[in-house]
Amino acid sequence: MLVNAQNLVLPLYGKAEFETIASLDDEMPELHVYLTDRPSRQAVVVCPGGGYKGLSFGSEGVAVAKWLNKNGIAAFVVKYRMPAGRQEVPVKDLTRAFEIVMANAGKWNLDSCKIGLMGFSAGGHLAATALVTLRGELKPDFGILVYPVISMKKDITHQFSRFNLIGKKPSEDTVIKFSTEEQVAEDTPATILFHCSDDPAVKPENSIVFYQALLKNAVPAEMHIYPKGRHGWGFIEGAPFPYFNEFKTTVLRWIAEQNN
Length: 260
Hints:
It contains eight helices and nine strands. By secondary structure, it is α/β, with parallel strands linked by helices. It has a nine-stranded mixed β-sheet with strand order 1-2-3-5-4-6-7-8-9, with helices on both faces. The protein is globular.
């Protein structure tokens, strides 16, 4: 569906294919495409958060894409399905989104080696999962994780996201599999992380353990833990996050550095 010259909304699956993989409660997942009149050939795929129960699609999706566009960067917001007992569904949808972006890179004037991934909260967990699992041409070139859920370990995790993704009594193998800090390797893309010390929902230890895993594997990494700002500020103008302008400047600087 053509919304305007710069915004496409694309289904992630054909109707017949989706009918074979969807549950009765699923809506078609989508890729919202935000191109820019000032193409830098850079692009960021964005995963909104929502605790694997819903999506903060406005403040952690659309608003992010529009801001990236203003700075000459194409953006793609993924409207992924909730797991609802199916642990692999969100990353399956994100993988399909990357397949669509890569298949259309030429048409959309993108450099296929300058496409990163940005995730917020539980969307940060999904983004981190993709950073450590996607391979080949689908591997993101860099990561941006904002107050991300990283670990499924009980003493660190966000319990609401953990329950919605892997259930009330997951096996130890499942906990380790979905604790993304355990999956970091030497080929994990360079990643920057942002968190607040006073985050009441997702402990900053989530970002810390991922950052430590990146360093252990000699992956280029950067982390900012602000003294206050709590959780969920996203791209809400006027949100009670005193470092918002600094955060935005840092994100743009990071993207530019990764694409040199």
